[in-house]
Amino acid sequence: MIFVGIEVIGRVPSVLHTPLMSGANAIHGVVVIGAIIIMGQAEESNYLALILGFLAVVLGTLNVVGGFVVTDRMLEMFKKKK
Predict the structure, then answer these.
(1) Who contacts 60 (Cβ-Cβ below 8 Å, separation ≥6)?
(2) How far apart are CA 82 and CA 80, in angstroms?
(3) How far, in Å, CA of 64 to CA of 27, rounded?
(4) Which of 3, 17, 39, 68 could form a disulfide with 53 if both were Cys (CB 3.0 to 4.6 A apart)?
(5) Is 15 exposed, middle or buried (0-12, 13-18, 19+ CB in 10 A)?
(6) What is the structure's pLDDT at 18?
(7) Can you give the residue ranges of every domain in the chain?
(8) Region for 62 from its dihedrals, namely left if φ exceeds 0, alpha if ψ lies in -120 to 50, beta otherwise
(9) CA dihedral 18, 10, 29, 60 (to 10 degrees)
């Protein structure tokens, strides 16, 4: 999947990278919300569900924040230089 992702992203024109990252942020935001819901409904004795839910929240949040950082940097490229 890494190679498929590189091929797909590599063929996207640079003008479309910002909307692509915004869409990815929205998708991963849904993943974070879903993981929080699953963790909230898991039994306290089900450590596997709690650990996997926690990892999903942490990794999804890192992905969302990273996506916003990349989007911000991409938008900086289009601003006029002083």
Answers:
(1) 28, 29, 31, 32, 35
(2) 6
(3) 9
(4) 39
(5) exposed
(6) 65
(7) 23-82
(8) alpha
(9) -130
Burial 44-64 (b: 16+ CB within 10 A, else e): eeeeeeeeebeebbeebeebb
Q: Which two tokens stand for residue 58?
A: 């942490």
Residue 14, both tokens:
């640079």
Res 70: pLDDT: 77
For tokens 């490229």, what's the residue?
77
Are 56 and 35 contacting, i.e. CB atoms less than 8 angstroms apart?
Answer: yes
The model's pTM is 0.64
Describe the crossing of helices 47-77 and 17-41 by its angle, rounded to 10 degrees: 160
Q: In this model, does residue 50 exceed pLDDT 70?
A: yes
Tell me the helix, strand and coil percentages in the chain, rounded to 5: 85, 0, 15
Question: Hey, what are 18's tokens?
Answer: 């910002």
